[in-house]
Each structure stands twice: as structure tokens, then as C-alpha cells.
Amino acid sequence: MAELHIIGQIVGASGFPQNSLFCKWGIHTGGAWRLLSGLKEGQTQVDLPSTGDMAYWSHPIDIHYTTKGLQGWPKLHLQVWHQDSFGRCELYGYGYCHVPSSPGHHHVSCVTWRPLGSWQEQIAQTFVGGGPQLRSPDLIYSGADRYRLHTVAMGTVELELGIIMRHFDRYGVES
Amino acid sequence: MASSSDLREKLRKKRRALQHSLQVKDDVDADTQALVPTDRSQSKETAQRDMEELTAGEEEPGDTLRRNLKAQRLRRRRKLEEASVDDKSMVEPFHETVGEVTAVQQISQSDEKPVEPCVVSSPAQSQRGDLPPRPQAKPVPGSSHSESSTMRQRMKDKLKAARSKAESLLQQEASQDGPASRLQSLKDRHTLTRFDRETDADLRGGGDDHPSSLNVKVKFREAVRRVRVDSKSEMGLPTAEEAYNFFTFDFDPEPDEETRKGQKRRTRPEGENEEGEDGGDDDEEKEEEDKEEVTEVDREHQGEDEERDDNAPLMRDEEEELFLIDQSADDFLVFKRAEYMGYQRRLQSENELLFTPSFLTVPASSKVPENMKPRYLEEEGLYVGERPPMSLTNQNILENRILKQEQGRKWFGDDGRIMALPDPIKESSTRPPLFHIEDDLDPALQTVYRKALVSKHASQYISVGGETNGDYQLDVDVSGLIFSHHPLFSQEHVLGSRLVQLYDQHLSRQHRNLTEHLTTKLNGLRNTIGNMLEVHGGQRLTPVMQQRISEYKQEVRNTRRLRDLEQEKDRTLLKGIVKIWKEIKALRDFQRFTNTPYKLYLRREEVERASDVREYEAEIQAEVDELLDEMEEDYQRKVTEYRRQQEEWKVWRRKQRAKNKKKKKTQSQLDDNEDDEDNDDDDRTDGEAEPGPPKPKPPEEPDMEGVEKQVSEKASRIRRKPGEPILVPELTASGPITPNEQCPRGEFARREDVAKRSIFIKVLYNDKEVSRTDNRSLNSDFRVHFGQIFNLKIVNWPESIKLQVFEVLGLSTTLLADVFVPVPESSILTGSAPSEELVFSSNLRVMFDHEAVGSDVPFSFEVDGSNRQTLLTSGKLSCSVSWAVGEDDVPLAPPTTQPKPMYSGLKQLDAIASIGASGLNDMKKLGEWATESRLDPNDPNNADIMQLLKVASSGEVTAPDYFRLEQLQEEFNFVSEEDLEQSRRFRLLRLRNQEVAEFRNYKFVPAMEREVTDKVFEEYERRLKEGEIVDTKGHLDAHRALVAKHLHKIRESIINRFLIAKHHFIMSDLVQEEQVPTIGILGLNLFKLAEPKRPLKPQRKERKKVTAQNLSDGDIRLLLNIIRAYDIPVRKPSVNKPAVTSKSTRSFTETLTAGQSQRATQGSDWLLNQVQVRPFVEVSFQRSVLQTTTADGPNPCWNEDLQLPFSAPNGDYSTANLQSMKDEIFINIFDEVQYELGGDGEDRGKEVHTRLEKHWLGSVKIPFSTIYFQSRIDGTFKVDTPPVLLGYSKERSLASDGGYDAVRSLTEGAFITLFITIEPQLVPGETIREKFESQESEGLLLASEVFERDAAVHFPDRPCLTTVININGKTVFITRYLRPLNPPQELLDAFPNSPQEATDLIARYVSLIPSLPDSVSFAGVCDLWSTCDQFLTLLAGDEEEHAVLLCNYFLSMGKKAWLIIGTAIPEGPTTYVLTYEQNRYLIWNPSSGQYYGQYDTFCPLQTVGCLVSADNVWLNTQAYTSPLRIRFDVTKAKLWKPFFSRAFPNPGLSSVQPEELVYRHTDQAAAAELQDRIEKILKEKIMEWRPRNPTRWNRYCTSTLRHFLPKLELSRGRDVADEHRLELQSLLGDYRISGFPLHLPFSEVRPIVEAVYSTGVHNVEASNVEFALAVHVHAYPNNVLSVWVYLASLIRMR
């Protein structure tokens, strides 16, 4: 029975307009996957870097999956949030990336985007914060016709993931 | 000015000189070339060469080739150079070389420059040391050449001479070192030429070049110096002034012409050089093409070299010029016209070079291959795409150009046109335009604008859901308040408010109109019954009908009773109203003014007398009939019952008789004819033997007559008399109030006072004031209307909402009352929330000197002052608190349930997530989901769902009864679901992740499936399976087994609760922040610096605390310091002779005399045998055993440190695990006894064999958890010694023989002083903060929180407890646990005359209930308090339960008793009982049954935190906490702070304890059975522990012991020891006996076995040892069992 360990960390994020950020993350898998241990979603702390653009979280991820089949390989979805000086939180970006499917250490950068919203909303956002959010955040990784959504590119989230695969070769999956 | 001839002359001269110099230069050039490699561009070249060098190894052949070429070229060049001197007219302008020439010119010009300034004015150069020519150059300037030419002439001559001299010198020098090198260079030139030198120089490094070039310079300078010296000697030095002028004079530039000429002359040869070379090279151009650049560069460098290296000759030239002629550098320059090629010429030349394709159409013939015609595919019907548009001209040009190319034709297609792809640009955009319309957008794509929100609930428990983290808003509506009593009430007001109350009650009753309702119901029921009976007439009723009728009748009875009750209430209420109204009227008359506007009208409704009477009568009649019916029925039933019973009885009697007869027959034939009496007699005796049914009594006839009377009496009491008008009271507030002026002074003052007051209300949310209402003045009717609504936007979870009523008088405000408003449910929303009336009251004592009645002041309505009453300020506050509703009708209430998962939106797209996997089989659900989530029917992903739905809805085709979302999944699956489920490893992993108890701390899960055995799960599965099955085997007692199971379940559920609670983190759990030092601390530290150093006074250093995470086995040790012991029992010499003292002398024994007599008897041995006892201490903990050395005497002092290793179970050092450790430290005191063995045979007398035996004297048990929580234990503990120790007696010190004894009378026994700690110190875990739900009122909980917090702040070391958690996990106020409860009657009966004895017995009874600390089982979570009945059912509990039970017993016995919440050794925080009897306080340890006087130094209680009685809690506010030093008088407010005080009175909390305890009678037979079983088990165990030696049992001794044990139980282990010993010794004189009885409360067998094992009696190794074991179980009521085990070893003396 094939097992997959995902051990790593969400290192941090850079390239966002502001750098006091935190991140909500989760791992989405298909129906064939079973969580054996570990937390499959969470939230990082808020990092307020005094220098530099990059916010560091170093948030650990340690998940152990087993699977019946390959379908629905785990995807990591992220939401980057910004906490402003008043302690208010606003969404800064959605993003998702596939968990690497080859064993070893991987450096993954996940680019993020955020809905743009109408011009009124944009103006409101400039002055009072907040911003448009998706009604259904699973759109991040489901492929509905997303082109109709106006989005802005935001920064990237850096991840370091170590993948350990076990017994995949028994089922003819070469890694 | 010099004439032209002069000039020409000069020029000629100059030329000559130049030529001369050139020759010289050439020499030097060659010389320097040979000597010095290129210098200035050295770095460039070296870089280049480095590169070459790197590749040199590989490119050896190429290199050599190049070298050869260079050598050749050099040779050639030299030749050319030589030739070029003569050959001047070789000018052949080549196109390519023109540029080069100019380049060379530039270089030469630029190179010239440094020379020029030297001549003209170059202070920089001039500063370079002592360059000679300068001072002499003074006359040089051209402006002054009008000076004497003679001088110049002279100078010229001189210079010439000097120059020739210098030349010769140079030549000499050159010949000195030059020839060698030149020779060498000449020699080398053939093969290696310069290249060799280059590399050479390379190797030497760039730095080395300079010296060589410097050498030249130096040489030159020397030469110059010589010249100068010469000239100086001849000419004399220039004056300082001249020198100054030279440096500062502004020289005019020299005429250009000369320079130009000079330049020309200078450059030409070089240019010729180049050209010549080029010309020469012409034939070899091809070969050297690639090298051209290199050579050129080389040459340039060379040129530079020449300039540099030629410095010397040039300078010489200059000098020459400087001194000889009036020439300047301009002589060498040439002015040239700008190069320009005429336009036409250029066009011409360009034409030759460039190709311009024509833009004429190319004839088709040239485009297609020859002899072919263009072929048009389009005409042949083939599709040809449209070409991209292109202008014809461009196309033509392109075609023309292509045709010129080689193979240009291949670009043309068959049709003779350039091949082209069809136009790729589409006509219209294929991407649909973006219409950003919200409605049109896929619902999944829609965005919501969310405001930036503060995540405010981080620390509170309001959960931040992904979607719902909006605002929460509470609306607090304070509408007003009404005082039901106010200090300023006048007497009339008091009555008035009462009237209003009653009237309100009346109105509400009328509104509900229960009486009417019940009456109609009653009538209805009666009618139905009547109808039913009527319909069926005389027919026989079916059983169903009968059943129904009887039910109806029952109903009628109930309804009637209720109606009667209601009617009575109505009537009394009415009466009350009328009475009060009358009182008011009387009062108004009396005081002659009115204060209240109340007016009561009694409206009469006349009724028709006749019908009323009829109704009344009918009603009574109906009731009477019913009653009679019922009675009749009842009677009938009883009669039938009676008959049945009688029948039974008769049958039984007959049977009995028959039996008797049979018996008689068998007994004897004689008694055949027995009379009835005899028979009866027998009958009776038999009946007594086996009781039969008693003889029934016939029922009484009902009293029919009394019924009517009763009914009419009742009717007259509760009902209106017939004909009496119906009175309807109406209260109005319209009456006139006497104006102020007409009132007497007292009343006037009161009214004035009222007018001065005003009221406002503060709204406090979570104890913080959030807003307050306006001040509203108090009216004469004492109603205040606010009508204000406060919208509270809340951030924190609402804990309490409080309204404070304040009264303002002038500037002072007083708090009247706190009103707690319950936090509304989240379903209570604004608009729908009802206004609540909350009653408040205050116990402020207010007195006035005017008419007002005041508050908490007794007053009376009567004139004579009788019937006094006291009223407290009270009132009703009407307000409502509700959650606000947001704009879009969303309630702004925090969610009550757990937040949804982060991505709940996922559910919309994933069917399984949305409706659950099981829902997939349900077509309807699936359909609902499909419509709800607006699935796109055209999406191929959804095709199968859609089809399925269609099929299902049409209903024609039977849909498959399964449905798969990922239909191809199955094929690709690696394994099936079952395999996955069966994997043991995965199961283990998952269980561990779920924190299932068995696997919670499982560290390593094996990597291989086969390594995970099924055994791992056995326990878990068994637990799952055996949830209900009770295993009675391990417990010997079915009841206890059940209890254990129950306890286990409770524990389980509570642990689960706390596991969940443990995952709630707060900030301080995660972030550890060092306290920023404040000024105060800093200041203190500064003062410390100034403190005098006191090296001899050691300071205590705080030990470092270690958090439990990073520990491993072996890191932790347990340190024990065993200091000393007191009063250890001493050995008695083995008495060979029977005791001298007879029993009679002992009848008045006290231990004192016993001791003396003992000593007297031992007299002879005493001197010989000094050692009374040799005790040592053995400590065992977690299987490791350590012991001290042996000390002497009954008061030994060891002072030894023992270190025990500590390891946590499973290696898990987490706080939770450490807290739940159940290990105990056993500290056993043994006596080391030496026995001499007779040597065998011949050795006798020579050798002495001794055997050491250890005899158990006593033990102390300390649970590890205690040490863990307290981090150290230090003190003197009482050693548990058995009541009887065979062979030992209590040695009492002489001091205790004296009068001091009285003080210590209560503390007999041995003591041991210990110090225990853990190294390193572990940080005990904090108790878990979880709010438990509670049924206590909000105010009480808040008050208790405040009380406890205050206590913690002011007295941090005093445990304070006001609320506890009951067994259901709810918070309960502590006083509810205390209530007098009856102890078992038989215990009270045991000592009817001696209350003291009875008290002891009861304490003993309580202590016999086994103790089970819950802090161990519940992982340090909290104490759970069970009520006494629960405690007695569970038969296990903590100290608290013992204490509560004991306290309740004492209370019921009429003692004054309190609970003490404090700390004790070794339990830690615990609960004791305090009683007050005979003017002294006694402290009871409930779990041991012992009591101590208040001033007992050995009392284990160390700290008294608070006292609890049934109605209050007092906190110890005295300076000390030790019971020795405090006073227990709780009435002293200074010493004890009460919880309930005048400010916060006890609301009358009801007890949680039952009314009365019911005790089960003890089953003596079961006890006996248990006794046998324990004895058997113990005997088996002892034999098991002695595998090597045979175990013999001394039956005789055993039976003696067995007889002795009950006595011990009766006397509770006291005062029998000596008698018993004597008895034993007389019986078994020949044996040396050591043994003792153990006493334990019974819970399970295991602890008993452990206790026996720990005494080590079985360890006796002597061959002739025998054992005796007796067990006695004494049963107390309610299955409380006291177990005695008597264990002795006997060794035959001879």
C-alpha cells in the first residue's frame, strides 16, 4: 500500500505589496487518499519583517497519506492574508500548487493572485482595505472557466517540501 | 627674429641632427628591444598571453608555427626598416591601410605629447627630481632669443660636446652590459626572437619590466647629470631668479610651422614603415590575414615602446633642440586636410561594392525551373490559403534579391510566386469578450467584497469561521425600572406597592383565567361521561368503553382538584387586595394626606340569585355524586381484592393443613386424631417457620354521609356564596395626591428628598463599563423610565452582562444593585426578544429622619409599633438583551457550534462532501444537490450525473443501484478499500493520530506491516468489546467490579474532554516573553550592587526548572534525603521465660507502666544487649531499591542521600503523562537482626555463623504525583506501623514519660524526617482552563471567581476553593456539599454511652472507604467531587469525598464541623475536617481516621487556606497559615474573610446531597467468603514468592492469630498489643516469632498482595522457618470492608 509523506515547511512569501502576512493553507486530495496522521490544514502566524520584502513563516507541514490510487494527487492550496497596522486582515492572494510527485527535497514557489473587483471596490480597497474574495475558494484548484475572473498577480509563496514515497513502485509507479 | 636663411640653416642642421639621432635611436632601439620587452602595454599583452599560456600545452604545434611566423616577420621587418630609411618614396595608398596610418599618426601624436610639455612647461615633470636641463632651459624661450646669440652659440657648442660625451658614455655603458645581451639576442633571434623574451618577461612578472625600463632612465639621468656637471663647471649655475622665472614664466607657443615640419619628418618614416611593410607583406597577405591584427597591435605597442624606450634619444633630441636651436615640438607636426572622397567617386566605389535589387517585376520564366510553365494549384481545384498581404514592390525586390542568391529558385513555388503560408491572422478574435456582469458569472466565480477585519477573537472562544467573521452586536434595551421598595417609600408607598403587586398578580391570573378554563374542562368531561353512559344505556359496556370511562373519571378527579386550587387562590387574592386597600384607606385617614395615586374600585356584577343558587347547588351535587361514585368504586375494588386474598389464604391454609397431616403421620401413628387446637398450634409454628400470606381484613364501608358535608364546606370556603355579586377589582392611579404644602413636615422632607434623587444605569459588559443611561429623576411613584437601547459591538465572547443601578444624590452616587442579565442564546434576536423583568435588591441600610421608611430598617404600620417588618430596597428592572440583526437579516450572533471547515465552499462542488457518501444512493438527495449547486449540465465532467438524474427522474429505465463519481477510479486502484482497512500499520498510525488512549504516546510505529502484531490492538479491541461486560474475577466482589467499570467510564469521558481542551492554545502557551524590566526592578538591582558582600552568608539559588519536553530516560533522578526517625519500636528480648507480670497487674495498664515493667524484666539483658534496634531504611521506587546504612537505637539519625533513577512510562515526559503517573515511593523501615547460628559439628566454638534478617517495622508511602506537583517534600511523616509488632515494643523516651506526655497524647507512633525532590526540577503542568457549564447563577459564579482571584493575589500560597466540579463535569458551589447526613445506625448504636467512641468509629468507617486520588486518574486536571451517596456507591474517592462525608456525619451528630481546605504532608492540597468540641479544635484526617489537636506539632496539615461550612466559605486572612498559629474563630472578620457577607448574602443554596443516606445491610456471609478467598490467595502468593524453600504453615499459630484479629478490629488496633503478645508467647514459647498485623481498607486484592509483599516476611531464609497467616474481614454497613492480615514467621529456637 503506497504511502506518501509530505514533510516540509511553508518558508515564507515575497513580492506582496505589504509584508506583514500570514497564510492559511490546506491540502486537498482525491477520494482515494487517506490521511494517516498529521494536520492537513492550518494557518501560520503573522510575520512582520522589519527588513526586506520577504515574510518568513517557516511553518511546518508534516502529513502522512496512504492511497488506493494515483488519482487526486495532493494539492496544496494557500491563501495569503495581510494584517495591517490596525490588526485588520484582508485577503492578499490565492494560490495552489501540486505536491511534487517525485521523492526528494523540492523547492516550490507558488504564485498567487487575487480577484480584482470592480473599480468601486478597487477604490474602496485602496482607502479602507478589504477586498473581493471568492465566494467559493475551491475555485482555486478547480478548473471552472476562470478566465472570466479579473485578477491581479500577487507575490509568491515559497515552500520547501520533502517527499517520501513508499511502495509506489510495487504498483508500477516509478519515481 | 631670425632670418629665413637662418631658419633654413637651422632646419638643415636639425635634419642632420635628427638623422644622426635616428641612427642612434635605431641603435638604442635595437638595444632596448633586445633588453626590454614591451612595457606599457605589458598588462594587456600579459593578459592575452596568459590565455595563450593556458592553452599552450595543448596547442604546442600551433604555437610553434606562430612563433616561427613571427620570427620570420620580424626578420623581414628589420630588413624593411633598414631599407625604409633610404626608401622614402614608397607611397602606395591602399584602401585598408589609410586608417591604419592615421591611427599610427594618432598614436605618435599622442605619444609625442608627453615630450612636448617637457619642453614647454611641465611643472609636473620638472618636479621629478633634479632634472638638469631645466635651470639651463631658462634662456630657451623663444621670446628671448633676441638675446646674445653668442651665448647660444657657446651653449650649443658645449652641448654638442656634452652630447658627444654622453653618447660616448652611453655607448660605453651599452658596451658594458649591452653587448652580452645583444649578443645573446642576436644569437637567439634566429630561432626564438622576441617571443622568448616575452615569455621570459611573463615569468618574471609585470613588475620586473619597470626596473629594466628604469635602468635605462637611470642611465640616461646619469648621463645627463654628467653633462650637467660638466656644463656647470664650465658655465656656472643659473641663479635662483632664473630658475624661478623658468618655472613661472608664461611661455609663448612656438611657431606652428616648425612643429608641423618636425611632425612630418617624424611621422613619415613610420608611415613609410607601415606601408613598406604592408607592401612587402602583400604577397603573403593571405597567410597573415588572421594575424594581421595581432601584428598591428604588436606594432603599435612597438611604436609605443619606441616612444618610451626612445625617450632617451628623444630627450636627447630635445635637449639638443633646447639648447641648440629655437625649435619647438611644432616642428614635428603636420597639418593635414580632412580626407574627403567626392560624392560621385564614392557612389562609384559603392556601386562596385553594393548590390541593389531592382524593383521591377521578375519575369515568370526566371522563377520557375527552366522549360516549365507556372502551375496554378488553385486552378487545379486545390485549396490554397490566402496569402498575407504584401506590397508588390517589396515582393519584387525580394524576388530579385532571392534570384541573385545561390539556389534562389528553391524559394519559388510551382506557380512562380514566392512560397508563403496562408495568412495566420484570424479575422475575428476567437476569445469571447469579457462581460464583467455579476449575474452572468458562474456562481463559483463570483467574488464578494469583504472589509478588512480585525481578527478579534483570537484569544477568546468566539471562533473565526472562514465565512462568518463578521461583527457581533448585542442590543441592550434598558426600558425602565420600578422600585418595589425604596428607602424613600412612605408607609403608604409600601402598602401601595404591595397592592400593585397583588393587583398585577390578579390581572395576570385573570388573563390566564385558569379557573374558567378548568371549569369548562370539567364540565366537558362530565358531559362526555354522561353521554357515553347514555348512549349505551343499560347495555353492557365493552371493556374498552369501561377502560375509557375510568380514564375520564380519573381525569375529572384531577381537573376538579386543580380547579379547586385555582378557585381558592383567586379568592384569597381578592381578599388580600381588599384587605390592603382597606389598610391604605385607614392609613390615609390617619396621616391625613395621600401619597399615592392608587384607587381601587370594586366593580360589582350582580347576578341573578335564583339561577346562581341553582348552579351552585348543581355543582355541589355533581361533585358529591362523583365522589360517591368514586368511593363506591373504590370500595368495590377493595372488596374484590379482599375476596381474592381470602381465597388465596384459604387455599394456602388448606395446603398447610394437609402438609401437617402428612408430617404427623410420619412422625407417629399415635397422633392421628388430633384436635383442631393442636392443629392450629402446629399451624402457627409452621407459619412462623415459613411465613404465608397474612389473613386479610375486610374493607371498611365508606362514609357516604360525610361527603356531602365536606363538599359544601369546601365550596363555601373557596367559592363565591350564591347570590353574592362578583367583585372585580380595578386599580387606577388617578387619585389625587395631596400637594406638598398641605403635608406635614416629615412628609414634606421626604418628598423633597425624593425630588433630589435621580437614577441611572450603567451597562457593564464582561465587567467593563460600556455605556450608561441618562440620569432620570425619581418620581413620587418610584418608577423610572429610560427607554434607551445600547448597541454593543462585541469583540470578546460575552461572559457577563451586568446592569448597575446607581442613585445620584447631589454629587454622590451610590450603587444600589447589580443586575445580571443572562447572555442571550444566539437565536434571540432583536425585535423578537421579549422584555424581561429582572428583580434586583440591595441590602444597603438606609435610615431617614423623616417619614420615609428606609431600607433594612424595621418599621411598623401599627401605631403601637407591633408587627414590625423590615424591607430591603428592591425593584424590577425591565430590559432585554438580544443579538442584533444585520442588514441582510443575518443575525449578528456568534456561532454556537464549531466553525465550519475552512473551505466549506468545497461542498458545493463535491457531491460526496456535500451530501455524504451514503447520500449518493439516494437519488432524490442527489437531484437536490445537483439543482442546488447549479451543476452545469453540459460540462462533460458532470455528464454521468446528469444522465443518471435524467434516468432516475424519468423512471423508465431502472437506474443502477450504485453510482460512482470517479468511474474509472476502480480500474486504476492499487489496492481495494478492504486491504487498506486491514492494514494493521495504517490502523496503528491512525489510532495514534486520533490520540486513542492506548496509542496516544506510542513513539515508534514499525515500518513493516508484518512487524505490527495483532497483539498491539488486543487491549484496545478488548476495551471496545468489553464496554459492558463486567469481569468479576479480578475483584472478588461483584459490586466493586461494577463500580470500577463505572469509574473507568467516567474517567474516560473526562479525559477525552480534557484532551480536547488541551488543544486550545492561548498566546502565552506559544510565545514566551521575558518581562521587560521596569524602573522599579532596575532600581532594586542597582541597590543590590551597593549591598555589602557577605561571603559567609550563602544565598539560596533557585534551581533551574526544566520543561518536560526535552527529557529522556536517565535525565531525571529522585533525590531522597533520609534524615532521622523517632520512636522506632525496639526489640524485646526473646523471652524464654514467660512474662513475669501477670495479667492482673496489667489490668490498669498504661503503656507507661508497661514500659517500665518491661525494663524491669529485662534488667539483666539490658546491660548486655545495648542495641535495642538497628533500623535501616529501604526505599523502593519503580523497581529500584536502595537502602541506607544501619543505624542504632530507636531514634536513629541517618542523614543519607539516596538517588533513585526515574523513568517515565513509555519514555514520554510530557506533562500530562507525568501527572498521570501512579507510581509510589515506598519507604520501609526495617530492623536488621543478627542471629548466631550454631556452628555445625567440630567448628562449634571456633567459628560463628550469623544470619542477618530484616524485620519490617513500618512504612511510608508517597505517591510520585505529590512530589511532582509540589516539587519538593520536606517534613516529618508518621510511619505506618502495625498495631502489633511481635518481638518489638514501643520504646518511649524518658522525656515522654514525664508530664510532657499529655501534650503528645494523640501522636503515638514512629516518625521519620525526609526530604524528597526531583532533580532537575520539573515544571508541573498547569491545570486546564476550561469553563465548565454550571447551574449556579451567574452572579454567584462571578462572585466566586472574584473571591478566588483575590485570594490568589493576596495569599498566593493558600488554597482557596469556592466552586468545585461534580462528577458530571459541572461547576457546583462548594457549600452545597455540606449537609447533615446520618451515619449508619449500627455504628451509632455500638457505643450508646460514649459519644467519643462513636465519633472515632465513624471516622474509622469513613477512612475504611478506599482512597483513589483523582488527580492521578484525571491527569492533574482538577478535583472531581462526588456527593456522599455517589461516594458510598462508588466506594472510592479522594480526600475531599472522605472529608465531606465525615463532616456531614459530624454535623448530623450535632458537632460543629467545617471543612478545611489546605495543604498537608504528603498529600499536598487536600481537605481535612475541623471540629469544635469541648472548647478545643480538633483536626481530622478523613482518609486515615486520625485526629489531631490544634497544637499538635505532628499534625500533617501544614496550611489552612479556607474553611467551608454548610452556608459559607471563609478565607484565612491571618498572617500565618499553620494551624498551630492561627485562630479558628470564623466570626472574627479580621481573621477570616467570609464569602457571603452582608453585601452578598447567601441566596439560600440548596444542597446537592440527598436527604438521607440509605445503607445496605452488610452481608456477613460474603465477608466470610471473601476472607477465605483472600487467605487462600495470600498463601499461594507467599509460596510462589519462595520458590526455593518449602513453606510450612504453623496451623496452631494461625488459629491463634485468627482469634486475635477480631479483637484487634473491635479495639481498632489499640491497647491489646501486650496482652496479645503475652498470650502468643505463652502459647508458642519455643518459637521466635516476628510478625505483625496489617490493616487495609478493601478495594481489590492486588493492593493487599502488594502490601504483604512489601513487608518482606517471606524473605526469611532459615530452613526451619514456619509461617502463620490469618485474614480477617470485618464488614461495615454498605459493604465497607476492613481487612486484617496477620503475618508471622516462626523460627523454632531449639
TrEMBL record, chain A:
InterPro entries: C2_B9-type_dom (IPR010796). Keywords: Cell projection, Cilium biogenesis/degradation, Cytoplasm, Cytoskeleton. GO terms for cellular component: MKS complex. PROSITE patterns: C2_B9. Pfam families: B9-C2. Coiled coil: none annotated. Its main location: cytoplasm. It is found in: Cytoplasm, Cytoskeleton, Cilium basal body. One of its GO terms (biological process) is cilium assembly. PANTHER family: B9 DOMAIN-CONTAINING (PTHR12968), B9 DOMAIN-CONTAINING PROTEIN 2 (PTHR12968:SF2). Belongs to the B9D family. Component of the tectonic-like complex, a complex localized at the transition zone of primary cilia and acting as a barrier that prevents diffusion of transmembrane proteins between the cilia and plasma membranes. This is B9 domain-containing protein 2. It comes from Esox lucius.
From TrEMBL, chain B:
One of its GO terms (cellular component) is ciliary transition zone. It comes from the Eukaryota. Residues 1-314, 655-748, 1134-1155 are annotated as: Disordered. One of its GO terms (biological process) is protein localization to ciliary transition zone. It holds the Pfam family CC2D2AN-C2. Residues 41-52, 79-98, 154-166, 185-211, 219-233, 706-716 have a biased composition (Basic and acidic residues). Residues 613-648 form a coiled coil. Residues 53-62, 272-293, 671-689 have a biased composition (Acidic residues). Residues 143-152, 1139-1155 have a biased composition (Polar residues). It comes from Esox lucius (Northern pike). InterPro entries: C2_dom, C2_domain_sf, CC2D2AN-C2, CEP76_C, CEPT76/DRC7_peptidase-like_dom, DUF5523, Tectonic-like_complex_comp. Keywords: Coiled coil. Residues 1117-1276 form the C2 domain. Residues 67-78, 655-666 have a biased composition (Basic residues). This is C2 domain-containing protein.
